[in-house]
Amino acid sequence: MNIDVYYFLLFIFGACWGSFLNVCIIRVANGKSIIFPSSLCLVCKKKISFYDKIPIISWIFLKGKCRNCKSKINIIYLFMELFVAALMLCIVFTYSLSPLSLIYGIFFSLLIVGSGVDIKQKWIPDTVTIGGIFFGLVCSYIFPKLHGCEINFDSLILSIKGFLVGSSILLVVGIIGKLILKTDAMGMGDVKLLGAIGSFVGIEGIFFCLFTASFIALIISQILFLMKKRSFRDEIPFGPYLSVSCIVWILFNLSNLNLFTFGNLFY
């Protein structure tokens, strides 16, 4: 198959998958099945025809409006389809057509759903966190190259250490924060999410994700505060920042740069 055709088909698949993930976010956030019923307009409640579900094209053709009631369709639908399509291309560009690409594609999908629900409802589904932990541990054993190893057991140990260190760091932060602030400073969803991330990226990746996520969260929070869109007492969904940092670490193969060599202290 011509490589241009291959990447085009991959882009189409990514756009379709992005549309599905957006549905998952909305339905999981509202405690509904991700399969049934079929897609409906959130305003007029009419069933959406199959020709109005074509990723990217349908949103543009309908000018971001429902065919029936003309209510606006959030541009996040278009963004999600384009973002996931581009993300799938980036994964394959980095890791070629390999088991690692499939593993990271599934893991990134979990991170996207978890982040979307966290933004909407300020909680992260156990399907994403606990499911991500087990998925990371299993994949680390079956595909040791996930941690740059040749031996399955060595890769599993690195995954377990990443999970334990990741979840422990935020758990301690949460306990200390609650003692000082007299309120929950860190949700258990974030604790489990960093544990899931650790099972994939190991200890060095954990430090990068935690530092980068905290920095980005601080900058964005300050901007929103200056714009009077948020107060200092508002709860900050930390999951999306952790997820973005994890995706950056994996896509740019930053483990090869030894950015956080003090992670070796845990080995």
Provide the descriptors you would attach to this structure in a database record.
0% strand; mainly alpha; 65% helix; 2 domains
Structural notes for this entry:
The structure is a single chain. The chain has 267 residues and is mainly alpha-helical. The protein has two domains: 1-97, no CATH class; 99-267, no CATH class. It has eight helices and no strands. It has helices at 3-29, 57-61, 76-95, 99-121, 126-142, 152-181, 188-226, 239-251. The longest helix is centred in the last third of the chain and has 39 residues, at 188-226. The protein is globular and about 55 Å long.
Chart the SSEs and their pairings.
Elements: H1 3-29, H2 57-61, H3 76-95, H4 99-121, H5 126-142, H6 152-181, H7 188-226, H8 239-251
Helix pairs in contact: 1-3, 1-4, 3-4, 4-5, 4-8, 5-6, 5-7, 6-7, 7-8
Task: Summarize this structure briefly.
The chain has 267 residues and is an all-alpha fold. It folds into two domains: 1-97, no CATH class; 99-267, no CATH class.
Classify the secondary structure makeup into a structural class: mainly alpha
Radius of gyration, taken over Cα atoms and rounded to an integer in Å: 20 Å
Total domain count: 2
Low-confidence stretches: none
Chain-averaged pLDDT? 89
Task: Tell me the strand percentage band.
Answer: under 5%
**Tally of helical segments:** 8
Query: Cα distance, first to last residue?
Result: 45 Å
Strand segment tally: 0
Task: Give a quick account of the main beta sheet: strands, pairing sense, barrel closure.
Answer: none
Shape: globular
